[in-house]
Design brief:
- By secondary structure, the chain is of the alpha+beta class.
- The chain has 15 helices and seven strands.
- Strands 1, 2, 3, 4, 5, 6 and 7 form a seven-stranded mixed beta sheet that branches.
- A hairpin with a 2-residue loop joins strand 1 and strand 2.
Length: 348
């Protein structure tokens, strides 16, 4: 057993968090949890995870779930393409593997939405296969252990770090080893303020010895995000709140939202013209407060108006009137509009 595992595994046994997907570590539970945790903190993801697996307890249920219901279950987690890829993968699992995730890193890696890290996590934790699961936490731990200031965004550097992870992996405990590294990065080897005094690997850590631990790992500065104006029309009628479905491809694909015009700062008169094309006349009540929503590569700077339509006009495809209950239970709406929706449509 490598020196890292020798020091790390006893610490993990004593300090591991009691998380629901660790209590029943099936391949499916690990898969769902790892996909959810790619862009979400554990504490924030847990309620979504528990609701998701309660309604969709296995790949067959996920494969058969209506897409809008799946998006509704995912609402609030963001990065909705993750859920769509999970459903594609679940259908393949049902068609090719009898509804059971395959016990093979290569077969897992070939499924939509499953990359090297997720395949390694499922393979090692669920099936005991010696496979690396190298995410940002693990890269940070090994950059500090080796006092290595190479750019961890470079593929060659990630491959080097992965080899180091594998050199320390105990062949009879790959799952606990991978989980222990993840846990160390999440609880102790923190990004800005590593808790070196509580680290079981402190005696082995060259970054701590050099005094550079807090400065590692190294990666290039992030590019500045593009800022885009978005004009929102929050319109209610006797039939509910006006919604439009987003396009089937691209950002927030297939989700529902109040009519919103991305990249356009419209005046109220211009907004009147846009809604008139739908046969809707609005009595505007107030301007919406300015809000912003940050995506990976862009920032929406939102504004617009709130108003009422005296009559619920018949709507073309891709638009709907949604009452409060329907909005809460049926229509998946991205969190970008959370600043506005409590003001309308959810009052019933």
């Amino acid at each position: 057993m490598g020196a890292v595992a020798q020091a790390l595994l006893p610490w993990f046994e004593k300090n591991r968090r009691l998380l629901p997907f660790r209590q029943e570590p099936s391949a499916y539970h690990i898969w769902v949890s790892e996909i959810m945790l790619q862009q979400t903190r554990v504490a924030a993801a847990l309620p979504y995870y528990e609701r998701f697996v309660a309604e969709l307890p296995d790949p067959a249920a996920l494969a058969a779930c209506p897409p809008d219901r799946l998006r509704k279950l995912w609402q609030g987690l963001g990065y909705y393409s993750r859920a769509a890829n999970m459903q594609k993968a679940a259908r393949i699992v049902c068609e090719q593997y009898g509804g059971v995730l395959p016990a093979s890193w290569e077969a897992l890696r070939a499924l939509p939405g499953i990359g090297d890290y997720t395949a390694g996590a499922i393979a090692s934790i669920a099936f005991g296969i010696p496979a690396p699961a190298v995410d940002g936490n693990v890269l940070r731990v090994f950059a500090r252990l080796f006092d290595d200031d190479a750019d961890i965004t470079r593929p060659a550097v990630r491959r080097l770090f992965t080899r180091r992870v594998m050199e320390q992996m105990p062949p009879d405990a790959p799952g606990p080893y991978n989980e222990a590294l993840m846990e160390l990065g999440a609880l102790v080897c923190l990004p800005a303020a590593p808790r070196c005094d509580a680290c079981p690997l402190a005696a082995l850590c060259r970054g701590r010895a050099s005094g550079r631990a807090a400065a590692l790992p190294c990666k290039p500065p992030k590019k500045e995000k593009t800022r885009l104006p978005v004009t929102v029309a929050l319109v209610e009628s006797p039939a509910g709140l006006l919604l439009q479905r987003r396009p089937a491809g691209g950002l927030l694909a297939n989700l529902w939202q109040p009519p919103a015009f991305e990249g356009r700062a419209l005046t109220r008169d211009q907004l009147d013209g846009e809604l008139a094309r739908l046969g809707i006349r609005v009595d505007w009540e107030a301007a919406l407060p300015a809000a912003r929503h940050v995506f990976t590569h862009r920032i929406w700077e939102l504004g617009g108006w709130r108003g009422r339509a005296a009559a619920a006009a018949a709507l073309p495809d891709g638009y709907a009137w949604a009452r409060g209950v329907e909005l809460a239970e049926q229509y998946p709406v991205p969190s970008a509009f959370d600043a506005y929706l409590p003001q309308a449509g959810r009052r019933e």
